[in-house]
Amino acid sequence: MGRAQQNPSTESSAVLVCGPARSGKSEWAERLAHQSGRSVVYIATAREDPEDADWSARIEAHRCRRPEQWSTVCAPTELEAALVEHGGSDRCLLIDSLGTWVANLIELEDAQWRERVERLEAVVDACPALLILVAEETGWGVIPAYPIGRTFRDRLGNLIRRLGPRCASNYLVTGGYALDLSLLGKPV
Questions:
Q1: Which of 62, 86, 119, 162 is the catalytic position?
Q2: Residue pLDDT, tens place only, 5-59
Q3: Which residues are known binding-site members?
Q4: How far apart are CA 153 and CA 169, in angstroms?
Q5: Which residues act catalytically here (predicted)?
Q6: CA–CA dist 136, 152 (Å, integer)
Q7: Cβ distance 147 to 154 under 8 Å?
Q8: Does 86 participate in catalysis according to the annotation?
């Protein structure tokens, strides 16, 4: 998880971990956070819904995997503020997940959404903490039949593409294996 030159004038210690559902991306991100040796703050973007037993079970499974010494911050929509508030240089902030954050803000108009993305980019660029960003890859499947599904897929895909170059490492986790795209791939 070394530092890599992002461009000639900026270094980043952010890490992007992407993958499909149930690929192991959260577990990989948790491993990276643990290996960082820093104080970890887990920033959860999920909203709890006591009426949805399956969703509650998924959230609980994530909680059970986290060490007790990690603190948890819930930031379903105010991710930028959480990064600023908790982003000390001695910390690792694990954000799980960008897809849920996008879904929580799906009703924003395009101009409002672009403003939020620009704010998030600025915070990611300025944050002194090690950031580990978890994101779902949704564009490999069928084109969504409904406009809101296409909006979600397009917004998340574009967000990942914009954040990727800002990160020192970009991992694709699939089938339980993590591939370091920063070493294997070429920027588009």
A1: 62
A2: 333 234 678 999 999 988 999 999 999 999 999 999 999 999 989 999 998 998 8
A3: 19-26, 44-46, 63-66, 96
A4: 23
A5: 62
A6: 11
A7: no
A8: no
Total structural domains in the chain?
Answer: 1
State how far the alpha carbon of 128 is from the alpha carbons of 14, 29, 39, 184, in Å. 9, 18, 13, 27
- Binding site for GTP: which residues? 19-26, 44-46, 63-66, 96
Quick one: tokens of 25? 């991306």
Look up tokens 């986790």; give the residue: 173
First and final CA of the chain: distance in angstroms?
A: 22
Please, which contacts does 114-121 make with residues 24 or more away whose CB atoms are closer than 8 Å? 116/80, 117/158, 117/159, 117/162, 119/80, 120/79, 120/80, 120/159, 120/163, 121/162, 121/163, 121/166
Which structural domain range is residue 124 located in? 4-184
31 alpha carbon, distance to own chain's centre: 14
Of 103, 114, 47, nearest to 75 (Cα)? 47
CATH number at residue 12: 3.40.50.300
CA torsion sign for 124, 130, 31, 6 is positive
Amino acid (one-letter) located at 169:
S
Task: Name which of 11, 13, 10, 21 is nearest 140 in CA terms.
Answer: 21
Torsion of CA 134, 139, 144, 147, to 10 degrees: 70
